[in-house]
């Protein structure tokens, strides 16, 4: 019986719709397990720019620091995508949050629910049994180095940077996680070309002997992009830099059937943030068709990691499993064989999960 | 009836084995079509380091400048992969060659031979009809910017850079290619985070009106990594930066069944270079089992692009198609249903293609 304060930060696009379902599930878990969860919400991204001019208003950041955990939606807006010279952008809110909260490790579990074995574009026999846990570094790399223009704006540059400390910090998290799983760690870099990757590989090699029970391999990012699709079962824990992690985990979403199924946990030394890996998806915003399961599964990660509520977390995952077993699907995970009346909208899907709790 | 001089640069690992097959095919084409092809060879990569201490000896570069075209193998050696602090590396030979020859555009056609529809880990119904032509920028980006260490070696950095000129140059090639195909161009970047991508997007937007017949879309690299597997048929021509192109084309190899099938052409203002997209593959080097078709198809690109020999190029592709139709496979493209006696080694596979010419 615990009392916890959760900040809901829907952000933009479908962020609003999906976090509403995540919150519904948290509410039910509190009632069922006798916890008291209090909530607040805050603006970020385009929504925050519209309201305050700032993609991460100080009040949002303050609320985040004070909360026990944050359930986050998504940020982004087509307006900025079409205007590469825009100075204020929704994504700055997300990146600044990650930096300010020190969220250096982004955990992205890629696991296929049995029922979705046919939903992917990858063959079932390739997917069956795949279970990967990505550790994406989240506060360094080309995302946070100096960037700008020179030669009267005719040349653009971005600086990628990593320190030993930054690499070691996330690498240790990944080694520790591998210990609790199948004891395999794949470190992904591009050490044949870039210097940050050479440092990355050096650090992994240096600390590996401290984890003799973990089998370590190094792969180049290009080869990994291929192997993930060719033979996803060969991976257990994967640790990689910010940019490579961004690309590889989106790709790996196909292993889980759909991006709409993937949750993530961003952890650091303070408040942790839980968010779907999908984006704001403005093409389907407001239509009530977005898959809320990534947000609901993010809530499950929140319960487990931030609150240490293992049973509660598993109850959510089991409820999702039951809903899928009962044949319910959102559009993104439906296939030709799904009966029309089993294809649900965002809120109806949330209600089905609720009904199993 | 033409006289042409071709430089064979096998490089490392399976490079030797596969370029030998590519050359065999070029020889036959010359005889069949009444051309005179003369050859020379040269060292690059680990092989060149061992012999001369330099991954791209001056004599190799000189021969390249003088040749009408270069058939290239692969570079790399596990020795350097395990030693991130090595100062001299095989890959430097490849990168310096690209820079010195001004090979700014790397064309990577991703096309599935009908017969290999079942060889991929992706479902046949997703793949059928997929046909993508990648334009990977090859002489800029984080590959060629300043890189190094600071803070007593504790921090590593890499600088990514693009100028308008560099982006426009490859973008125009891609637009022109799209005109001769399905008239769709997808430009891939990460303009929501990095400045080089913002410049990239600006340049594409600026020149797009000059190609009103080409439909342009912009995608983020993470979304593209997902869409390539989810729905490869939506892509026609894809243009992207050096690093993103490296990652996405290796991933896309799964669309063609195997990396062992993919050829590439690196073009610039002087001699062009043709090479498989696969690497040196030391795990299978010397075993005679590497798939030579990527090198043979690279020879086909060479005939077409450098020599303007369309019929000759098509004859090679048709020969490969016939060999596949006859059921012959190397290990990488064989499946459970392939009879043992149809699984061929490198040279035997080359001989089968020869027999069809
Ligand atoms: C929106 C964007 C800045 C972000 C990123 O690149 O990190 C997103 O793709 C993600 O993966 O969380
Ligand atoms: C070997 C390596 C430097 C090279 C690259 O990254 O360009 C290779 O992966 C390629 O795609 O040609």
Structural class of chain A: alpha/beta
Question: What kind of oligomer do you see?
Answer: homodimer
Total separate domains of chain A: 2
CATH class of the largest domain in chain A: Alpha Beta
Helix residue percentage of chain A: 40-55%
Instruction: Give start-end ranges of low-pLDDT stretches of chain A.
Output: none
**What is Rg of chain A?**
20 Å
Architecture per CATH nomenclature, i.e. the level-2 architecture of the largest domain in chain A:
3-Layer(aba) Sandwich
Q: Which chains have the largest interface?
A: A-B, 68 and 67 residues
What does the largest sheet of chain A look like?
10 strands, mixed
Q: What fold name stands as the CATH topology of the largest domain in chain A?
A: Isopropylmalate Dehydrogenase
Average pLDDT metric of chain A: 96
Please report the total strand number of chain A as a whole number: 12
Enumerate how many helices of chain A there are, as a single number.
Answer: 13
Unique ligands:
3-isopropylmalic acid
Family (chains A, B): Belongs to the isocitrate and isopropylmalate dehydrogenases family. LeuB type 1 subfamily.
Pfam family, one (chains A, B): Iso_dh
Main location (chains A, B): cytoplasm
Function (chains A, B): Catalyzes the oxidation of 3-carboxy-2-hydroxy-4-methylpentanoate (3-isopropylmalate) to 3-carboxy-4-methyl-2-oxopentanoate. The product decarboxylates to 4-methyl-2 oxopentanoate.
